[in-house]
Amino acid sequence: xxxxxxxxxxxLITLSILVPLIGALLVILTGKIPNLREAITLVTATxxxxxxxxxxxxxxxxxxxxxxxxxxxxxLDISFEVEPLGVLFALVASFLWIITSIYAIGYMRGxxxxxQTRFFCCFALAISSVMAICFSGNLLTLFxxxxxxxxxxxxxxxxxxxxxxxKGGRIYLGILLSTSIAFLLxxxxxxxxxxxxxDFRAGGIFDDSHNKVIxxxxxxxxxxxxxxxxxxxxxxxxxxxxxxPTPVSAxxxxxxxxxxxxxxxLKIVIYIFGLEELKTLATTDIMLYIGAATILLSSCIAMxxxxxxxxxxxxxxxxxxxxxxxxxxxxxxxSAGAALHIATHAVGKITLFFCAGxxxxxxxxxxxxxxxxxxxxxxxxxxxxxxxxxxIIGLPPMAGTWSKWYLTIGxxxxxxxFIVATLMVSSLLNIAYLLPIPIKAFFNTSSxxxxxxxxxxxxxAPLPMLIALSVTSLACFVLFFYPQPLIDLINLIPGVSTExxxxxxxxxxx
Length: 510
Hints:
Strand order of the largest sheet: 1-2
Transmembrane segments: 12-29, 36-55, 85-107, 119-146, 171-192, 213-231, 251-274, 286-304, 319-339, 383-405, 417-443, 463-482
Strand content: under 5%
Keywords: Cell membrane, Membrane, Transmembrane, Transmembrane helix
Mean pLDDT: 91
Membrane topology: Multi-pass membrane protein
Number of domains: 1
Family: Belongs to the CPA3 antiporters (TC 2.A.63) subunit D family.
Low-confidence stretches: 500-510
Oligomer: single chain
Number of strands: 2
Shape: globular
Domain NADH-Ubiquinone oxidoreductase (complex I) chain 5 N-terminal: 76-120
Order of helices and strands: HHEEHHHHHHHHHHHHHHHHHHHH
């Protein structure tokens, strides 16, 4: 962080957006020299993470960081501002960009993928869009870069260039663009017509003078307009995008796209509606029921999928609605759980996708039914898979324990017992569709397989892939034993607090 001590704090916002763009340009220029191209990707990702760490440090110091890029109309501009929730998302995305880049180098070479320069360039463009979303100062800025993220990731989804990739890309682009134009844009315009502003403000911009029916309608438009949150029935783009290379799946499910969706919903709930106003809206409970249904139905669908990436995709649909539900509970501690789940789900799910890609590269297996005894050949990968699975389930000693704990306490505090039941049943379903995979790999053996195990029989994925999945599985441990820095950051979000809400609940005030 000393590297940036002489830089004006607000200028760090500009750097966080520009550095990945510069990296994308350099990747194009060095495309014919793979080693240099990939070194530039790693250096760029590391520089971005150091910038975000500096922004985090200034956030804890209470530094006011904002910039106005251009004023389009009076009171309507493109601007950026640092607030704790955005910093949390930026930390997750920038850190995982480093790890995903390491993984992608091993995967793209090990799988002999074509168009690798385009891949790394679009990846950098997507991360730049994510940084702009993280630090958006108003709804207009958020909307613009939400759309930029969609377009920058489309070439990644269609990377293979075959008919299946093109079909998946059409579904991806079609659903995300149609929902954002038909619903999200309408919600943004409605918000501006009611309030005369699109700025994010602590406590929200709506008050008792606004019609509750209209506000309830706006809430529904926002929830469905942010299609990247994958609330049913606008979730099909996510499984369809599984035709992309596994590093792209990791980008979609952990680093950028889906997290941009749930982050946007949580930010709008906190800074546009406000938690207190949200409690007064009739549609809040309706969307809660839809979120709960998404959690359970997508988990049930996941259980039916034999293709590993398809099962993980529907698992992601379910886990995203944990964050949506946490936001809609309009509880301080539930909002904290939703924010923390952005980080804990990221490290757990990216580990699982890393393992899925490693299995495909090393053993060419895509279906779970083919993975009997695979733990003998790929012990490191399957141990990492077990760790990621336990974290997603929410069992100690893994990171997912804490976010699910806060979400459950928040549901109890809001007196929403059906949400508590949903979270409990969902965790059982998580066990049912995730744990049998490593169990099958380690404790079942192929017919006739009697030979004692030895390291000489192992055939793991390329080293960069193993490094990446080892780091993210380690992160699942670290965030269980040392979640406090993230919790301290979350406690800086206006109206969101873990300690106060937990204390009240334990004293019987919840």
